[in-house]
């Protein structure tokens, strides 16, 4: 089929971007829209802690984009609202092709001060919402692929905190780490349909970055550097993953910091030892353990310390 005159890479594609009306989410929405996609911006307009919803946030963003943009202002973190957001994309624009799970909140506290209600809220918004959206969207993506529509793309916005950890972020880091497992499984489950699923850890100036409370001098330096990085680079890379050129990229974990794109390794065994045969001897095993395993331990550096260098912008 001949491409329409002045076609852009995502013409005819329909995207659902959660948390799509501010920060990195808005940058992604703008980029996908600029490349021709129709966008549903699912954003309830809550504060960084998940309070005080404001529907005008998504409505204003959709109005700014104009044609081919629609606001969805309900809380995405329930199965019913996730289904409603996907249904809106199908009803308004004729299908769904691109899903970007970006919505996230923060309720940080040291583990010895953490509150169960805060844990539940963060896990619900940062991880369960992504599951609900994908549970609603993937049946349609499969049906569309069977009907001959170009396979869809899924991008889960994770965080280096989910890979490295950080002080006082038990809920946030756990949710973001959970997204990595979800990404791998969805990539496998949707592989036969040609639908890809990848994870991206962004480094950019956002409300999350602004909310960082440095625990030491290195983290103070990190925050200052991070606030200099605009989110457009993340948006560009996410748009690439949503394009036809990334059809063979799935189940991967990337980082984007300015012009730098990182491919993260994923947990696999590094060393192997055998327990002593015929009974366990602590002293004997301690020597083996130290020689073979302890030398390969992963250090307890935070993500802020690991990436405390000048970004390339």
Structure notes:
The chain is of the alpha/beta class. It has two domains: about 15-265, Rossmann fold, CATH 3.40.50.720; about 270-295, no CATH class. The protein contains eleven helices and eight strands. The protein has helices at about 25-35, 55-65, 80-95, 115-145, 160-165, 170-190, 205-210, 215-225, 230-240, 280-290, 305, and strands at about 15-20, 40, 70, 100, 155, 195-205, 255, 260-265. Strand 4, helix 4 (about 115-145) and strand 5 form a beta-alpha-beta unit. It is globular, with a radius of gyration of 21 Å. The model has no long low-confidence stretch (mean pLDDT about 95).
Radius of gyration: 21 Å
Q: CATH top level of the largest domain? A: Alpha Beta
Mean pLDDT: 93
Roughly how many Å apart are the termini? 39 Å
Any idea what the CATH architecture of the largest domain is?
A: 3-Layer(aba) Sandwich
User: If helices are DSSP runs of H or I spanning 4 or more residues, what is the number of helices?
Assistant: 11
Count of structural domains: 2
Low-confidence parts lasting 5 or more residues at pLDDT below 50?
Answer: none
Number of strands: 8
Q: What pattern of helices and strands is seen along the backbone?
A: EHEHEHEHEHHEHHHEEHH
What can be said about the biggest beta sheet? 8 strands, mixed
Helix-and-strand structural type: alpha/beta
Outline = globular
Within the CATH hierarchy, at the fold level, what is the topology of the largest domain?
Answer: Rossmann fold
CATH homologous superfamily identity of the largest domain: NAD(P)-binding Rossmann-like Domain
């Amino acid at each position: 089929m001949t491409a329409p005159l002045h076609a852009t890479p995502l013409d005819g594609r329909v995207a659902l971007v959660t948390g799509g009306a501010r920060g990195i989410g808005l940058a992604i929405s703008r980029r996908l829209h600029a490349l021709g996609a129709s966008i549903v911006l699912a954003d309830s307009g809550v504060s960084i802690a998940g309070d005080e919803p404001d529907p005008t946030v998504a409505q204003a963003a959709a109005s700014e984009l104009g044609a081919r943009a629609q606001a969805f202002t309900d809380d995405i973190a329930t199965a019913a609202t996730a289904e409603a957001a996907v249904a809106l994309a199908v009803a308004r624009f004729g299908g769904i092709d691109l899903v970007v799970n970006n919505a996230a909140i923060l309720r940080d506290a040291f583990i010895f001060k953490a509150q169960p209600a805060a844990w539940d809220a963060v896990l619900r918004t940062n991880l369960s919402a992504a599951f609900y959206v994908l549970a609603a969207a993937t049946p349609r993506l499969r049906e569309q692929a069977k009907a001959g529509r170009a396979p869809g793309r899924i991008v889960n916005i994770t965080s280096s905190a989910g890979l490295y950890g950080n002080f006082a972020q038990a809920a946030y880091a756990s949710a973001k780490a959970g997204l990595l497992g979800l990404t791998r499984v969805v990539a496998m489950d949707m592989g036969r349909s040609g639908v890809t699923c990848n994870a991206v850890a962004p480094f950019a100036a956002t409300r999350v970055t602004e909310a960082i409370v440095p625990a030491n001098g290195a983290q103070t330096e990190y925050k200052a550097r991070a606030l200099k990085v605009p989110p457009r680079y993340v948006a560009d890379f996410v748009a690439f993953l949503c394009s036809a050129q990334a059809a063979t990229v799935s189940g991967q974990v990337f980082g984007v910091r300015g012009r730098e794109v990182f491919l993260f390794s994923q947990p696999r065994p590094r060393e192997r030892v055998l327990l002593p045969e015929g009974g366990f001897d602590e002293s004997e095993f301690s020597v083996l353990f130290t020689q073979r395993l302890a030398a390969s331990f992963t250090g307890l550096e935070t993500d802020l310390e690991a990436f405390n260098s000048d970004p390339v912008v």
